[in-house]
UniProtKB/TrEMBL annotation:
Stretches assigned to the Histidine kinase domain: 199-403
Protein name: histidine kinase
GO molecular function: ATP binding; phosphorelay sensor kinase activity
GO biological process terms on file: sporulation resulting in formation of a cellular spore
PAC domain segment(s): 135-185
Length: 417
């Protein structure tokens, strides 16, 4: 403590006051009162100088503290009861603010996305109670320019300008998070590619083994007519597997046009008519909509319908009825339901349907249903499956429709055998 201005000033005042009394009251200068008041003045002055010294030291420390926070390359916010008291330059730029004044006084909750506000409030209560450092809590932040960014935040209870507050240090991890997601997607794609490659090798190897055996029989000159049919059938099977794989792997330039869904279904039923008759399956259509128009790629959607009808017919080896229901659902959505009376699928197997090479058929590849899922997804639709063993399966396709007038005046039913 180098400055003793308070102490000196009070002692001088005591001396001057005693001198005044000596001159005008003709009293003795060095009295007991003089020494008492001078001692008190010296002590009070010393305490005053001491408190001023520590106040200046605290201000200097706080300025150094702020300079340190300003130099940090990460966003720093100090807040009390979610009200922002301080923001460093990195926080200003990180939240897309014009200056610190645009942040100070605002609620921290204004910058946190709704799904993350509960997490922030919970962590704040924990910090207040435990006064411990909390590391690496992730929040989605809404900046002043409307952009959404992800921040990883550490928080600590501190004292700021004489108040208890929370200091939060945030690091923008949006780019890092995006890179991680891209790496994860690449990893999933590579895993899927490996799974598909193994599946294709397995599926093609079976018919190739059959073909190899029959070729060896041809060499022994014990040719029979049915052998040629089997070889051709197996070659067709290989061609079909490769064709389905190409549909998944090769992107195509889809041309979406407005189409009448009723007309599309009628064309598909006509194409499936022969197979249904041979398998003693009755196809029944229930449609109470008037010319429901959808925006679609016609051939792709017909491929989905044909695949589902084919699966339904094969699921009824002893014959039965396939009901196709077309109806309007809530919102701008049309539902097409395919309900069969087949053998059904166990509940635990339904989630795996649509995965490559997962199938309930003896000679199936699973690629057909996977293609269906992909096509419906490209049409901004949804495909769901419900089934019970021994009762049948319902496959529902939901698609957005064009226009508002799709309600029919009466329930139109067609039965094709």
């Amino acid at each position: 403590m180098s400055k003793r201005t308070g102490q000196i000033s009070l002692v001088i005042i005591s001396v001057l006051f005693t001198s005044y009394q000596t001159i005008f009251s003709h009293e003795t200068f060095f009295t007991f009162d003089f020494f008492l008041f001078t001692g008190i003045a010296w002590f009070v002055g010393w305490q005053f100088d001491k408190s001023r010294y520590y106040a200046e030291k605290a201000r200097a420390s706080e300025e150094s503290y702020k300079m340190l926070l300003e130099s940090l390359p990460v966003s720093v916010l100090i807040h009390k009861d979610f009200e922002i008291l301080y923001a460093n330059s990195s926080a200003v730029s990180g939240l897309s603010a014009s200056d610190k004044g645009a942040l100070i006084g605002r609620s921290l909750l204004d910058f946190i996305e709704m799904d993350y506000k509960g997490r922030l409030q919970e962590r704040y209560q924990y910090i207040k109670a435990e006064k411990q450092l909390i590391n690496n809590i992730e929040y989605q932040v809404k900046r002043l320019d409307g952009a959404r960014r992800y921040f990883e935040v550490s928080s600590l209870y501190v004292e700021f300008e004489g108040k208890e507050a929370v200091l939060s240090i945030g690091t923008d991890i949006s780019d890092k998070k995006k890179e991680q997601e891209q790496l994860l997607q690449k990893s999933e794609k590579l895993a899927l590619l490996g799974q598909m490659a193994a599946g294709i090798a397995h599926e093609i190897r079976n018919p190739l083994t059959s073909i190899k055996g029959f070729v060896q029989l041809f060499k022994s000159s014990s040719q029979k007519e049915e052998y040629f049919d089997i070889v051709l059938s197996e070659l067709d099977r290989i061609n079909g597997i490769v064709g389905e794989f190409l549909v998944l792997a090769k992107p195509t330039a889809d041309i979406f046009e407005k189409q009448d869904l009723t007309k599309l279904i009628s064309e598909v039923i006509l194409l499936s008519n022969t197979q249904s008759i041979l398998n003693n399956v009755e196809i029944k259509v229930e449609n109470n909509l008037h010319s429901p128009m959808i925006h679609c790629e016609k051939n792709q959607l017909k491929q989905v319908f044909l695949n589902i009808i084919k699966n339904a017919i094969e699921a009824m080896p002893d014959g039965g009825q396939l009901t196709i229901k077309v109806m309007k659902k809530t919102g701008n959505t049309i539902s097409v339901q395919f309900i069969d009376q087949g053998v059904g699928i166990s509940e635990d197997r339904i989630p795996s349907l649509g995965e490559p090479f997962y199938t309930t058929k003896e000679k199936g590849t699973g690629l057909g249903l996977m293609i269906c899922y992909k096509i419906i997804e490209n049409h901004n639709g949804r495909l769901t499956i419900e089934s019970k063993v021994g009762e049948g399966t319902k496959m529902e396709i939901e698609l957005p429709f064009e226009g508002a007038n799709v309600e029919g005046n009466e329930n139109r039913k067609n039965v094709l055998i």
